[in-house]
UniProtKB/TrEMBL annotation:
Acts as a component of the essential kinetochore-associated NDC80 complex, which is required for chromosome segregation and spindle checkpoint activity. One of its GO terms (cellular component) is nucleus. Residues 50-191 form the Kinetochore protein Ndc80 CH domain. Its main location: nucleus. Residues 366-588 form the Kinetochore protein NDC80 loop region domain. Residues 1-20, 25-50 are annotated as: Disordered. Signal peptide: none annotated. InterPro entries: DUF5595, Kinetochore_Ndc80, Ndc80_CH, NDC80_loop, Ndc80_sf. Component of the NDC80 complex. The keyword Flavoprotein does not apply. Residues 25-34 have a biased composition (Polar residues). It is found in: Chromosome, Centromere, Kinetochore; Nucleus. This is Kinetochore protein NDC80.
Length: 626
């Protein structure tokens, strides 16, 4: 039987995995025990839990076998044969990881940059998502995920070591390939689980019986006996057990062969397509999708602009239609008025005197219009000249006002909330009100400015007095500074004396350090002498250790011989137990048959006894009647 991760969980102690064993596709699932051929996922209890267990007990490092493979609990590391440091292989694994996460509906964001160097948080999310494909009830703890992930991989019997230190910097160039290899191994297990779940859908109704138990126990006894003799491979036993299982469960060899041929053809087709198109088609499609979305946004904006332009044109068209209707109605009224005037003209009768009078009045009116037009032109010219003069005056006034405002801002008089405004408005607004209001506003501002000037003069006199007092204080400070300078000279003299004393103390300290150095040298010589004595004692201790190790190996060899004897005895006990179990089952069936025969005989005897009792009763009644 294969010891790959996807195989049946064996009660025997687990050892080195062998990926070259036969495939588990041919195995048949069972209903009561864990499925034969399905991935068995034990939930990890803790980081310190044992990797493999056995009902014989854990085999420690003190029980080695004469074998090239590791033992029960051996800590020998298996070399990873995958080219994880090959960039092309790493990129291929990243593409496969991206495709798997996309197909399974990974909820997070996926990008090529993220998968090239993910953070620890992103790696834990991907690991949790993939592991949930195996165990939907799994929940990643919030704390100590750096310890939990290696523990889960160890519980899943991952053949290689993923250290806790690498989990703190998953995206680093020297740790990401190992973490990626662990994810790819987990994805392969998920794919095997999906394949076996599809293959084993119709096999849940098969129940294990005595025949299967006997086959499995015989296989276990044979393989374990060879295992204890030093063998590590059991190809003959695997083949024989597989043949018996196929015969027991009626496996269709033709169907399996056709499925293998189909899988091989599809694999060749996938390899050919990957060679033809090395680019990432998914990324290409995504780029096309982004471009199409950008074009769609442009088209939508263009459509909205066209709709707004159409609405403007419709509004203009409606306005033009209204104007045209108004013009048509006005034209109709003018035509009607023209017809009325034409009718009046035709019906009116003038004399030559009326015509001359009308012409004369017309000429007078034209002369009046010409004189009035000339007067209007003169008045407009005068108005224009006055407006130009007024504009020049306004410009001068505005310049003066601007200079005033500039000076007022420097003096912090405007705006109203300025520091020196005192709540008064000093801003001049010419041409906002009438001339009277301007004069009144000017008088008010002048009065406020005079008051402000008087306040400033008072402050100036007060500040002058303060300046005089400050000058007197300054003279006093200068005299104090002169006195302090004299004190400073005295302090410098004291510092010079202290420096001389410090030099003398330093010389004394140097002489003391020289004496200490001589003492240290003598102590160093004493230390070397002690070290030589310690080395001599260490050599004697090493010799004693070698002697103890030789004795230990002798005792260990004797212990191993005794344990092998015990294991052989246990194997014989297994064989006896299996035979006894089969014999017991046969005896139980025979006993059931005898029990049914006995019960039938008892029923017949009871019926005969009842009949005899009835006969006796009838005889008694007849005897009594006689």
């Amino acid at each position: 039987m294969s010891r790959a991760t996807g195989g049946r969980p064996s009660e025997m102690p687990m050892r080195v995995q062998d990926s070259n064993r036969m495939s588990n596709v041919y195995t048949t699932p069972q209903s009561k025990q864990p499925s034969f051929g399905k991935l068995n996922i034990p939930k990890p209890q803790s980081v310190t839990s044992e990797r493999r267990t056995s009902f014989f007990g854990a085999r420690g490092a003190s029980m080695p076998r004469n074998s090239t493979m590791s033992g029960f609990g051996g800590t020998e590391k298996i070399k990873d044969a995958r080219p994880l440091h090959d960039k092309s292989y790493v990129q291929q694994c990243i593409r496969q990881l991206h495709e798997f996460l996309t197909e399974q509906g990974y909820p997070g964001t996926l990008s090529a940059k993220t998968l090239q160097s993910p953070s620890t948080k992103e790696f834990v999310k991907m690991f949790e998502f993939i592991y949930r494909q195996l165990d939907p009830t799994f929940e990643m703890p919030n704390s100590k995920v750096e310890e939990e992930v290696p523990a889960i991989l160890k519980a899943l019997r991952y053949p290689f070591v993923l250290s806790k230190c690498s989990m703190y910097s998953v995206g680093a160039p020297h740790t990401w390939p190992q973490a990626l290899g662990a994810l790819m191994w987990l994805i392969d297990n998920v794919k095997q689980e999906l394949l076996f779940s599809d293959f084993c859908e119709d096999g849940d109704n098969i129940e294990e019986g005595a025949e299967y138990n006997k086959l499995f126990l015989d296989y276990t006894v044979e393989t374990y006996s060879k295992f204890m003799q030093g063998d590590d491979t059991f190809e003959d036993e695997d083949e024989a057990f597989l043949t018996k299982l196929k015969k027991l469960y009626n496996v269709d060899e033709a169907l399996l062969a056709s499925m293998e041929d189909k899988h091989r053809i599809l694999s060749d087709e996938v390899d050919r397509l990957e060679k033809e198109n090395q680019t990432d088609r998914l990324m290409t499609k995504r780029m096309e999708k982004v471009k199409l979305q950008a074009d769609l946004k442009k088209l939508q904006s263009y459509r909205s602009s066209l709709e707004s332009f159409k609405a403007n044109l419709e509004n203009k068209a409606s306005e033009l239609n209204d104007e045209m209707e108004t013009s048509v109605s006005h034209l109709e009224s003018l035509k009607h008025e023209r017809d009325e005037l034409q009718r009046l003209l035709q019906n009116q009768k003038f004399t030559p005197a009326d015509v001359e009078r009308i012409n004369r009045e017309k000429n007078e009116l034209q002369q009046t219009i010409a004189s009035l037009s000339k007067s209007l032109e003169d008045a407009e010219q005068h108005k224009w000249n006055e407006e130009i003069a007024l504009a020049k005056v306004k410009e001068k006034v505005e310049l003066k006002v601007a200079e005033y405002h500039k000076l007022a801002r420097k003096l912090k008089l405007i705006p109203l909330s300025a520091e020196n405004a005192c709540g008064h408005d000093f801003e001049i607004r010419p041409f906002d009100c009438g001339p009277n209001s301007n004069v009144q506003h000017k008088a008010q501002i002048q009065m406020l400015l005079r008051k402000l000037i008087s306040d400033v003069e008072e402050d100036n006199s007060r500040l002058t007095n303060m300046n005089l007092s400050l000058e007197e204080s300054c003279e006093q400070l200068n005299s104090n500074i002169f006195e302090k300078s004299n004190d400073l000279k005295q302090l410098r003299e004291q510092i010079r004396k202290l420096d001389e004393r410090l030099d003398f103390d330093m010389q004394e300290l140097a002489r003391e350090e020289q004496g200490w150095a001589e003492e240290i040298e003598s102590a160093e010589n004493h230390r070397e002498l002690l070290q030589k004595k310690v080395n001599y004692g260490y050599d004697e201790a090493v010799q004693q250790l070698k002697t103890a190790q030789q004795q230990y190996h002798l005792v260990l060899q004797e212990t191993n011989e005794e344990r092998r004897t015990v294991a052989n005895n246990l194997a014989s006990v297994f064989t006896t137990a299996a035979n006894h179990l089969s014999i017991t089952e046969v005896n139980v069936l025979q006993h059931c048959t005898l029990l049914r025969v006995c019960s039938k005989a008892v029923e017949e005897d009871a019926a005969a006894l009842q009949k005899m009792r009835e006969t006796v009763e009838s005889l008694k009644s007849k005897a009594n009647s006689l």
